Amino acid sequence: MRKVAVVGYGSSNFTKDEIPVETLLLESTKQIFDTTKNISQDLIDGVIVSTNDNSKYLAAILSELAGIKPKIAHSVEHLCSSGSNAAISAYSYIASGLADVVLVAGADKINNTGQVLEWDKTRGEFTHPIFWGSMFTKAHKRKFNTTDEELAIVSAKNHKHALDNPNAYSHKIHTISEIMNSKNITDDLRLLDCSYPCSGGSSILLASEDVATKFSDESVWISGIGQKTNSASFVKNELSVLSSSVTASKYAYDMAKTCPAEIDVAEIHDAFTVCELMAIKDLGLSENENASDYVRDMFNTGNRKINPRGGLIGAGHPLGATGVSQIMEIVMQLQNKAEKRQVCGVKKGLIHNMSAAATSSTVLILES
Fold this sequence. Notes:
The chain has helices at residues 21-35, 58-66, 82-96, 129-144, 148-162, 176-180, 212-215, 243-256, 273-282, 292-301, 311-315, 319-334, and strands at residues 4-11, 46-50, 72-76, 101-108, 200-208, 220-229, 265-267, 348-355, 360-367. It is α/β, with parallel strands linked by helices and 368 residues long. It folds into 2 domains: 4-114 and 198-220, Thiolase/Chalcone synthase (Peroxisomal Thiolase, Chain A, domain 1, 3-Layer(aba) Sandwich); 120-196 and 223-367, Thiolase/Chalcone synthase (Peroxisomal Thiolase, Chain A, domain 1). The protein has a 9-stranded mixed beta sheet, sandwiched between helices. α2 (58-66) links the parallel β2 and β3. α5 packs across α9. The protein is globular and about 55 Å long.
């Protein structure tokens, strides 16, 4: 099986504006052509689009708009983790020898229909993600005595990090007090505990070890992959642990022959503040029972190890682009190109991307 590298990337701004998904896909793809050496349309074997948009045939449409005539072209939809799943599909084509170079482009526009899984009748009238986020939060508070302040610190940290991300939805600092006193959405979640649906697109270019050096002198390698789907129905979920993330991370660590202690930087799926606390613990990144002390210390010291681009809370959450954007950030960190967001001495990075109340999770490990 061949090694696979990320050799290029690009992103639009994440915004509240209503922008056609085709425009978002093309904008981030164009950046790859503008910034990746020696790349041309005829060298791209595959185009994979990650989206929850209802538009049809988007991979073929993007290919035509970008002047590409690929052997492989299709879309991937897997709710919030569509982007990481699309990247793994591209990895598989390359590792197996079916392709050498694959473009992965993810995009969604604000208010897209992918936020709600209508099939899951177990959710009753509580179909919006805010309700599972609220149940996770209530369960975490009961089990770990988590305080509103500890949750607010997650949001304050990620909004602060997003200030240095030029593509982020939010460019405003929020104090812990302001977050705690923001509008109540449910009994346990306030407005500033939540990530932002928005319009945005991100793209990455993957290449086999046979050709990667042609396109980049700083290739970043995908060394570990882990995936796990427990169900689609929320009723089958555990409320105080992201069990699919626990399993997915074990697979990824094993494949990469590494462990949590060796992870230098991580992009965590913080759809709600409680999700970051849960993921840090369940991925093994902290031994602290509820991870709040770990996050508080990062906030107080300015440590950017977790969600240096601002996470979903600070950067925004255009579903199909999120996983791709997470990968892009870790690549930039490993290439020492993250500017003000840069974490020192990065050798290994982790991406955690999940869907539908963590009924499924994807974990990737990247190395320089």
